[in-house]
Prior knowledge:
homodimer, about 200 residues, 10 helices, DNA-binding
Amino acid sequence: MSGTAAPAGKREQTKAANRAAILDAARHVFADMGFGAASVRDIVRRTDLAAGTFYNYFPDKESVLRALLDEVATEVRARVQSARHAAVTPEAFVADGFRAYFTYLGTEPELFELMRRNAGTLRAMFDEPAIGAGVDELDADLRAAVASGLVPEHDTAYMARAMVGAAFEVAVLMLDREPTDVEGAVAFVTRLFLGGLERHG
Amino acid sequence: MSGTAAPAGKREQTKAANRAAILDAARHVFADMGFGAASVRDIVRRTDLAAGTFYNYFPDKESVLRALLDEVATEVRARVQSARHAAVTPEAFVADGFRAYFTYLGTEPELFELMRRNAGTLRAMFDEPAIGAGVDELDADLRAAVASGLVPEHDTAYMARAMVGAAFEVAVLMLDREPTDVEGAVAFVTRLFLGGLERHG
DNA sequence: GTCGAACTTGACGCGTGTGTCACTTTCAGT
DNA sequence: ACTGAAAGTGACACACGCGTCAAGTTCGAC
């Protein structure tokens, strides 16, 4: 009957369901009113649970944000990383990385909206610049590309930031346009940054 | 004695001083804890004023944010606009616009921090994408440049967003590095986007 | 069917924020 | 000086969020 791994007792089932319900409610609340203005009560109210129950699952609203973040950050990082590491040409490096990024965001627009709305808070709270989910890794990959001669020498720290910042804004616009045109966005940023990389030679 | 225009009665003097004190306190508070988490009391506490006095100047905290925003948005827009409109080559168009932007941010790092911290809130609150203070104007300028043949045809909406997003992130890094190197940042983004623009032809 | 541990519930005590308002202080005009 | 309007003050009434906890409910083991 149940599709996934363990059938599990009813106890564990509701436990997982409650946790999921809280995370789901929090996703909406944080995206709608922003993390700072949101209260634990706002989250609970979007749920069938009682106020006290919340604290069986998370100690405070910050933990919920953290959980939500881990969800998205690890996923997007892994996808982008593996896409980039499979690339051998600069074209593929840029295009595949962005494609993985844009594709995932198209899949989870709600999480993206949450990140967009609370980007400043995230930066301040966890020093991880989770917004781009891996500026450091991009920087590292760029340095490796420079070292191996694939790409001309340049300020990789600036470049990583610029790529993430531009990609983020382009993603916003991409998701605003109907229908969502991932390939168009990929083509745009790829041309932009390939041109930029060459020019730095 | 007093440098500026009207010596003004003591009445008007303190009135202006109080308003300025509130705005200054709010600048700090919004930048430190984020707009959503901040309270009117937090602002007042950073001031010599009583709680009630606040409401003689602003109806609520949102109005303070609005006032703060107008301060920075109109200033940066005017500077960038005039810098760009004086340019005749694509090089100057890109470089001068960014230079005006970076230079102003270097002047007012506190307002920049406020914008950075609350970018998501600003977008949600006022539809104006005040963060880049003029994406629309940049888009318009780009379209004009395309129409006049200065620059090859491309998706100017994407380009405007990408430029603003990249500039914002580069500015963050620029202000983190010591000493603040405006010309280095200008040179970086100029090469990046000139290469990108050419490549789109 | 019984029992106990795990979980849920919602009301409670406490702290804090909101916007207001009667009262006081301050300044400008005479 | 004197006076009245303008502005400042802080306590107040109300509302809400927080985290807890005693009481109730539910599931699973035997």
